[in-house]
Structures are given as C-alpha cells and as structure tokens.
Design goal:
Elements: H1 3-9, H2 15-23, E1 27-29, E2 32-33, E3 48-50, E4 53-54, E5 62-67, H3 89-94, E6 97-98, E7 107-113, H4 116-123, E8 131-137, H5 145-151, E9 154-155, E10 158-159, E11 164-167, E12 173-178, H6 185-192, E13 197-205, E14 208-209, E15 219-221, H7 224-231
Parallel strand pairs: 7-13
Antiparallel strand pairs: 1-2, 1-3, 3-4, 5-7, 5-15, 6-7, 8-12, 8-13, 9-10, 11-12, 13-14
Helix pairs in contact: 1-2
Bound molecules: uracil.
C-alpha cells in the first residue's frame, strides 16, 4: 500500500501532512528515511517510525475522548454538537462512532471506534463490561441504598443488574459501577431513592481509567496495552 494512504487510513496523517512529514525526514521505513509519500510499503512487514515512535497500523482504531458537557453521543444530530465533531478529518472520514451513549450533560470517558463487532460486545450486558461513574447528588442517599443497588433496582418493567456503590461520608457523592447502559440509568436509579444527580462523569471503561491528562473535548488513541485489554474483555 502507498505510505500516505497507510497513514491516512489509520487516521494518523492526511496525505498532505504525510508528504510534509516525508520531506522533513520524520518518517523512517525499515531504518531508512522515507523518500516519497507515494512509496509502496508492505504494511504487514515494514517497521515504520514517525518522529522516532514505532507506528502500528491496526485494522481498527480505538479512541478515548474526555466528552465535554453539551455534546451528544452520536455521529450526526442536525441541531446540537456531536462528539465526532471533536475528531480530526482523517478520523471522521474513517467513520468512527461512539461506543454507547452518555447523556448530553454527562462528561468523561467516551470510547470511539470503527470496530462494530467489538463495540457491540462491549455494550452487551451479557459481557459484564464494567463502566465506573463518579456522581454528585442534591441530597444524601438514604441508608441501605448500597444493598438495594446491589440487589438490582427496578426501573419501570426492568430490573437493573447489580450495581456496586461507594459513597463519600456525606453520602452526596460517590462512584457507581454499571455493567449495562439503560436510558438515563444512574439518574433514574438515584431518583428512585429521592435524589437528583447534579453531576455525572464516566471515569473508567472496561477497566481502563480515563486519562487525567485529557482536558474536556480532548482525545487520544488507546495504547497498545489498553487496546489489548479492551479486546480481551469477555
Ligand atoms: N446514567 C445516566 O443517567 N446517564 C449517563 O449518561 C450514563 C449513565
């Protein structure tokens, strides 16, 4: 495959930026600075470095974003801003989509990918992939909520899966672990206890913590280790 196509398909560099990187000697293929952006490389075998870092060209892309407030977890809305607008053109072109939903006012770990099968698996309640949320409430959560959440809260016709709860001393803030994603689930669970959620942030997804270095709206690729961890979720 052409070197510039490889970089642009991977969402790393547009073709123009790849040409610039080649002319600056920033791309090294099998130990030799790349001579042309349109040179042919064997992506399965070539060792490619960009600015001194080894680049892996995987079939799929996995991105961690710190979702800001006010954005919809979708690829289009027509009215409100969507999380994919925060990605660069190369990744938009690749068709990345959010894996699951966070409410417009929820912040934190949003996984975006073009790997539909894995996204489906990560979201299925069958696979028990843990998502951890930090919340604050307008009033202390009543005593016994921990046990009720672990037993499975009823929301309408449905019973939620057990949810582990850890509360601060004042019982107005804490963390909750969900393995499913029902509509407004945490807000509705808290409402059943007579409390209103005043802030909600997802701080971890499938055992991968949100990178604290990502400011709201910022994103980065998952590391190789994080990707392997995500793909290994059963
Ligand atoms: N539960 C909610 O109520 N909202 C979210 O965004 C996520 C979980």
């Amino acid at each position: 495959m052409r070197l510039d196509k490889l970089f642009s398909d991977a969402g790393l560099l547009s073709r123009r930026d790849c040409a610039r990187a080649v002319s600056r000697g920033e791309i090294v293929v099998d130990g030799v600075p790349a001579s042309r952006a349109d040179m042919k490389v064997d992506e399965a075998k070539a060792e490619i470095f960009f600015r001194g870092e080894r680049v892996g060209f995987s079939k799929f892309v996995y991105v961690m974003m710190n979702k800001p407030e006010g954005y919809i977890s979708a690829t289009t809305d027509g009215r409100l801003p969507v999380v994919t607008e925060l990605l660069p053109e190369e990744l938009k072109r690749r068709g990345l989509f959010p894996c699951g939903r966070l409410d417009k006012d929820t912040t934190g770990f949003m996984l975006l990918t073009d790997d539909g099968q894995t996204a489906h698996r990560l979201l299925s309640p069958k696979h028990h992939v843990e998502k951890v949320y930090a919340f604050t409430l307008d009033a202390p959560l009543p005593e016994g909520a921990e046990a009720r959440f672990l037993a499975g809260v009823r929301l309408g016709d449905e019973i939620c899966k057990p949810a582990a709860l850890a509360l601060d001393d004042g019982r107005t803030a804490g963390e909750i672990v969900l393995t499913e994603g029902k509509y407004h689930q945490i807000k509705r669970m808290m409402q059943r206890e007579g409390c209103t959620v005043t802030s909600l942030a997802r701080i971890s997804f499938g055992g991968i913590p949100l990178d604290e270095g990502l400011s709201p709206g910022a994103w980065r690729y998952l590391t190789e280790e994080e990707t392997a961890h995500l793909l290994a979720q059963k």
